[in-house]
Design a protein that fits this description.
The longest helix has 39 residues. The chain is built from seven helices and five strands; from the N terminus they run H-E-E-E-E-H-E-H-H-H-H-H. The protein is an alpha+beta fold.
Length: 181
């Protein structure tokens, strides 16, 4: 999350003014583009001093969805670790039909990837490291939790039942008067 917070934004100033960053005086000219740390750019935009230029995340979402469909059911397309954070931030800045369209496409991508991740959760641990390289940080967390749950379920179904069956056999043999040792 820290890396996402430290990302820089390009802001176009709507007025001329001077401001300071880390003790350095910066002169902003109207219409001038400037790349600033995320927090500073967001603050200046909220004060009406400029407008941040965001990437068109809808294009990125469409590309990710297309790639996900292209790789098929047995593979995951690569997305960067902050993909969903950027999409949600972008979505909060748009309204109406564009926002609805983005949310629909995002949900479609989520369903596709979610289903694949669930399938991969029971994969051997050494394979999971390879899969994690293709996931956002939220998806990595989901995969790890599913993998743990899958391992626990496997134990409950197979290992625990073996112990129960052994106990049942020993109990039955004891009831019949056989020496179990």
């Amino acid at each position: 999350m820290k890396e996402f917070e430290e990302k820089s934004f390009k802001i176009f100033f709507s007025e001329s003014f001077t401001f300071e960053i880390d003790g350095e005086s910066i002169v902003a000219e109207t219409g001038q583009p400037f790349t600033l740390p995320r927090k500073i750019a967001l603050k200046l935009e909220s004060e009406g001093k400029g407008k941040i230029e965001f990437d068109d995340e809808l294009v990125n979402l469409k590309q990710a969805l297309s790639k996900e469909k292209m790789v098929g059911e047995q593979e995951l397309a690569i997305i960067d670790e902050f993909f969903y954070l950027r999409l949600n931030e972008y979505s909060s800045r748009i309204k109406g039909r564009e926002q609805e369209f983005l949310q629909d496409k995002l949900y479609e991508l989520f369903r596709m990837r979610n289903g694949k991740i669930i399938k991969f959760a029971s994969t051997k641990l050494d394979k999971l490291d390879e899969i994690k390289l293709k996931l956002s940080f939220e998806e990595v967390d989901f995969l790890e939790k599913l993998s743990i749950a899958s391992t626990e379920l496997h134990f409950q179904i197979f290992e625990k039942n073996i112990d129960i069956k052994v106990d049942e056999i020993e109990s039955k043999q004891t009831d019949e008067g056989e020496d179990v040792a």
